[in-house]
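<goal> How does this chain fold?
<body> The protein record starts here
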Amino acid sequence: MSESTAFRVMLRMQIKPGMEQDFERVWLEVGDSVTSHPANLGQWLSRSDEEGVYYIVSDWVSEPLFREFETSDRHLQHRQQLHPYRSGGSMTTMHVVAHLRGDGADVTHREWEAAR
């Protein structure tokens, strides 16, 4: 399936004050429970300029396969591990209709961090 037909999920998470670093650490520790799912194409954690707000973007092969994951025990356990840090949030879903690959797309996160 091409990237242009991916199903994208974007979560906005409000994290309790003072818990941001712990949230980031736990998100990284438990992330493979999402990314190891065969229908997951990857996920990103972004910290907003707005105090305590994070965005999580996750791409999936299809909406039905994401919905299957969303109701699974694996997802419930993942959510339970992150729930203590949350004070609120929302979810938006969408279908990717186009993707333009940038020149830096093949740079890994570790390579990018080392270059900073």
